[in-house]
Amino acid sequence: GDETTTGYGVSVGREPADVDLDEAAGDAADRATRLLGAVQPASGTVTLVLEPQMAATLLGVVAGTLNGESVLKGRSPFADRVGELIASPLVTLVDDPTDPASLGADSHDGEGLATRRIPLIEGGTLRGFLHNTMTGRRAGVPSTASAVRGFRSTPGGGAQALAITPGHGTLDELIAAVDHGVLVQSMTGLHSGVNPVSGDFSVGVEGLMVRRGARAEPIREATVASTLQRLLL
Description:
The strands form three sheets. This protein has a four-stranded mixed sheet with strand order 1-8-9-10. A four-stranded antiparallel sheet has the order 4-3-2-7, covered by helices on one side. A two-stranded antiparallel sheet has the order 5-6. It is built from six helices and ten strands; from the N terminus they run H-E-H-H-E-E-E-H-E-E-E-H-E-E-E-H. It has helices at about 20-35, 50-65, 70, 135-140, 170-175, 230, and strands spanning about 45-50, 95, 120, 125, 145-150, 155, 160-165, 180-190, 200-210, 215-225. By secondary structure, the protein is an alpha+beta fold.
């Protein structure tokens, strides 16, 4: 038919030899062809299964609500919840620019302070926020060496090398445990679709339905609505 679908694949590394072009091309072809014949799904409540790249993207949005500037401006749903359980006990989220395996690794932040591992969520409990010198001073806490800046910008605050402690099992094993869900392979409108004050989000998704533990028909033109708080839990 006349149907056109697109997909992309990624391979990263510190050296050119670390980049696997075949892996990236194969992933892109698989992502494009699996969406052929995609339909708009019926409305309902489903289990959301995020491909690792999509999970990382959403955790980046969560981290945006955990920076000191957002908290001080009253633009974070987690502002007054340090020490509280805000996520599943399975979730440990850190910002660790000292990890040499991270492509975001750096010895110093945008203000020249030595970087260190900053626990944000440990075992589901909120431990604190990311601060630069200014937001830390206003909050009455030391900087966490989380100043980020471009070549021409003044230092803001934010995550530099986010990492979540891996769980057990594979994506396929996760899917096998889902009776009725959606495997999300791409999202659109993420940054405009998230309310950073309330945590509400509504985004467009593409992917595959999951039925009785198996991948089923492809879907497109679907919208997923939830909150960051429910997602973490």
